[in-house]
Amino acid sequence: MAHFVELYTSIIDSISGLGVSTYTPSQEIPKKLPTCRVSILSGDPNEYVKNARRYSYSFQIDAITPENGLEEGLVLAYKIMQALRKISVDGFSVQMNGEPSLSSMVDSSTNRILNRQIIRVNYNIIEDTIS
Question: What is the value of pTM for the model shown?
Answer without folding.
Answer: 0.89
